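Supplementary Methods, section 5.1.

A reviewer requested that the exact input to the structure prediction be made available. We therefore reproduce it here, unchanged from the version used in the analyses.
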Amino acid sequence: MADKTKGRQQPSANVFLIKGELSKVAYQVKSLSRDQGRSKVLGNELPKIKKLCKQANESGNNISAAVDNEWLKEHSVGLIKISFTGTKDACDEFIRDLPVEPSSVLRVGKKNIEVVYVINRCSTALRNKIITELSAQFDNATVSALSHYLLPAFHNHRKKGFKVKQISSSTDELKSFDFISQFDLDIWPKPKPLVEAGNKVMKYQKEFLPILASRFILDGACSIGCVPDYIAIPFVTLVASLMGHKIHSQPTPDESFIVAPIIWGMVIGEPGTKKSPASSLVLDLLKEPIDEYEKDFNSAKKKHKSKDKVHDVQLKLVTEQVKCLIEEANNVKAPKSQRRLFRQAERLFQEILEDKFELVKKRLITSDVTFASLHKMLRDNPNGLLLYVDEIIGLLSKVHRKGNEELKAYLLQCFNGFGVFEVDRATTEHQSSQDAILSVFGTIQPDKLRPFIEKVIEGKEENDGFFNRFNLITAPELPSLSDIEYKPMDAKVHAKVQSFIISLCEHEFFNHDDIKKRVVTFSYDAEELYLSWWRNFQKKVENSDSDSFKSHCRKYQSLVPKLALINQVISSYSPSKDEFNPFDEVEIRCVEQAIAFTEYLESHARKLFDPLVNITLVDAQRVSELLHTITGSFVRRDICQRNLSGIRRDSERAQAALDLLEKHYWIKKSRHSRKTQHYVVNPQLSD
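The structure derived from this sequence is encoded token-by-token as follows.
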């Protein structure tokens, strides 16, 4: 009987393919016909593989798939083959002793096996290093690189006359560092900075705010050389502080749900990332109106000086008259006449004291306050102020310090915007602050904030929601210096925004004295969009494992109406007329922008309040400071015995820190221990 395989090209024993890039294509051969292989493919490269298979089979290669050297380089995939010769038992023992499950094992003849590893994230240079290290480990095997990887297209190779048989395969993704670590090879990648740990955050987009604001923010970022986030947060906070009690929003039919545009913002960044220049660019917009208010105050003060002198003279004269009336009353025996004279003296004093006029200086911004000074400023400026603190960790520490409970309570009241704050002292008269309103902005370095955040996440900080009121909090990822585009600020854009700020300082949206009547509602479409968003947002947030993150995001119910109203006010300004066009409702596009902005803020908050990122990151940084003192290998117990701050003897926290350090190539696991896991330190840390 003729051999049915006669005339067919026999595949070479040292050339085979099992699978392609595992992150995109993972497939196993289910059944193979004599003429053409059929594969079940998981991924998005099925058409490409089918075409390649068809071309190869038409050429008589009888394969199911193939890749070449160029494809391997393009996808950073390294193919490594370990060839071993021995008896069947020796071959089986060799396979069992391998610390990493092979991608494929093929038996070539009776005494030869070919072990193939498909390694992802593996450059050609790294592949060559791995081959060198493996060659030193295996005295009885040959390690080499593969430029092709082919699979014969017949189901039963032995019956069809082939000497190559696949005896096992794996579709698990194998990464280069995992491979190196499990084989305990002396190859170390460069340690990655620990600050790279954590969830990815969204970048600022121009669609978050109206065109006028976004152009100013993006132009300003290019002129300074910083990320636009550093300008967007203080700008929104500044606009909110100038709107104050001039206008409010009502996002739902519930008339009791009135939202004042109060924003507390915070920018987190490393030193030298130009947080302060970005803040100064925004705050300098207040310089012109502040100078004007200062000039008006000084002018009024000069005019008032003469009035003060006249008043002082009048007071002296009245005092003499009152003395005479009191002496006369003391000499009169009739009680009725005495009471009349005393009442006359009281009226004289009352009239002169009521005539006393106290000048009030209009304020827009303050930086360092006590409770008494802030209470007085907000009584004198009922539309509110902006509290700007360059290093806001000072304010956070101050309000949580014993003795400043009153300041903290007042700030919490100011975030609400409505209500009465009564002050009674034994040494001073009763003072009342009605509907005080205050926006807050500051910058901070991550190292200074992290210990505070750690307390918030662990619930060690007082649960009063003070930190959660910083809705506009951002910690943007910084681009490389080569990606920063420097260009000067467009003078016309700056002039338009400057005019907007000046106009907003003086503009009144309503004539009502009752601030609770200064309200604009959402349009029907805007209201429906807002309610739908809030329902879905609540469900998403409540699925989070972080209680601190959930507490923070619950404040977003009022944040979206605030941002939407701010967008509406900015959009209503006409630079050509230098005036605000009237509006009686918040439009849907402004709510859409606000929701998009909130999604951006949510991504930053999720990273900030994620306990896995923050607490573990702090612990990993503390452990990293000990690594230079360790020689040889170490175990988790060695870390716990150091009694580090935060970790103490908590083995779970210590393990989480070690896992993060391993992920960033600071340490790796050692194979030489069976019962207790040992680690070794990356030698590059000591360079």
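The domain at 612-686 is CATH 1.10.10.10 (Arc Repressor Mutant, subunit A). These observations are discussed further in the main text.
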